[in-house]
Amino acid sequence: LSLQVMLVGDSGVGKTCLLVRFKDGAFLAGSFISTVGIDFRRPHLLTSSSLLLFQMWDTAGQERFRSVTHAYYRDAHALLLLYDVTNKSSFDNIQAWLTEIHEYAQQDVVLMLLGNKADATHERVVKREDGEKLAKEFGVPFMETSAKSGLNVELAFMAIAKELKHRSMKTPNEPKFRLHEYVNKEMKSSGCCKS
Amino acid sequence: MEERNRNRETQEQQLNEFDKSTAKERIDRIDPYGFERSTDFDYDAYEEFMSVYLAILTRRSIKWSKLLKGNKKVGKSLKVKRYVRKGIPNEHRSLIWMVSSGAQAQMDQNPGYYSKLLNGEKDAKLVDAINTDLHRTFPDNVLFRKTAEPSLQKALFNVLVAYGQHNKTVGYCQGMNFVTGYLIIITKDEEKSFWLLDALLGRILPDYYSPDMLGLKADQEVLGELVKVKVPGVWQMMEQHGVMWTLVVSRWFICLFVDVLPVETVLRIWDCLFYEGSKILFRVALTLIKHNQTTILQARNFPDVCDKFKQIIKGHFVEDCHGFMQSIFIEPGSLPMTTINKLREKCQASLLAQGL
Questions:
Q1: How many CB atoms lie within 10 A of CB B29?
Q2: Domains of chain B from N-terminus onward
Q3: Cβ contacts (< 8 Å) between B217 and chain A: which residues?
């Protein structure tokens, strides 16, 4: 099963870092360069039952690049929308990103909101509750992540994989996989060290 | 016992000498421009190449010194064009870029303009956007570290902010950070870098960096049209797998090959860019594609195609900057400016018609 996942969000929120963290399990502070345009990467991920192939699209966050990147929205099965908990304006822009996504992405695209850099407790300016509230308002699953510590990074990708896998195998009268509930349940079980 | 010890010492000595005699031991871990060599850098191939290239550099250096003797003026002539294509020695690079691009003339006509921009009021959003990219520009270059003395990060910030204030339509666009970084490395001067950036964005390149990026989008399509004629197999394959040109070549154009090709090769390309204009970018792109068409055509699916395009910008062909620069004037064949202009017009018009 091959999944097209695209990472979007303002410039500097940590899209490339999150992707590299998931792919290589590494975070090298100060080794990342600004993504220009759109970058295609493909790591493999083996799950217990079957081989999942993630095809990842990393994008530039700067506004003028959106006209270059939104052509790819329609091919994406899942979108990870990121903001930076230490950057208020990246949070304020989420609504604009959602509008953009609704305009260009497939209607049934799997969408998840991620508040990244959750490890930076001192610089944090966006409260966890604010993220939750916004996510609830727009009906999208939400979690806080940290590419630096690894918090919830794997979970974010696994959750969308499960959702997409469920959709692809589902017979019409099977109960719907509940991404929200899965995320909430898993997050709680992983969370002794949350801020 | 003593003898055995002595024997071991000689052995160790021999081993040490053997160690130092590898190319990796002889060559600096940091290149002449401040970049740390990557872990997979091929020291042996580099040394082999440099043993030949050093002689060429020396010869070019003598020729240029004669040419420039007594005058700072470099007119446009076939001789100078030939000289530029064979590479400007690093000690003259800044001067020749400045003169041939018209940046020097602009700087002379506008004394104090750069410092006025720096001391003037600055747009907060512009400053924010630039700040976001400062530590993400050349983290592998020791001169750009915050701790470097002086740190080129500060110069980079100044030039980008000044330019954003000077050209408010463009402001700051990602990619300009990498281009400006190279200008600062070569000129070692903020004001010169500013005027060279102005020459590039204002006169040499189409509007790659403006908010609608029309010039960039058009040039990607122009490249597609050229590939269609000159390397039809690759064009067909791109169509077949539905790969848009923007996906594989946008960084080539926006970064003017910085961080795409090896540093020395990029500088040689820029020698021609400043002297001859933006057509050179198509020559480079076409050469990369045509020279590697067998490799590219091995791609079996969409991800393969993307991988191949990342593969062809590496290896001996591009590391050998001198050989590469010779190929770009031969391999793609004739490429008249009238053709480029026509294609640019056509592609821009069709993009505008599509509302892009």
A1: 11
A2: 42-94 (no CATH), 102-204 (1.10.8.270), 214-353 (1.10.472.80)
A3: 67-68
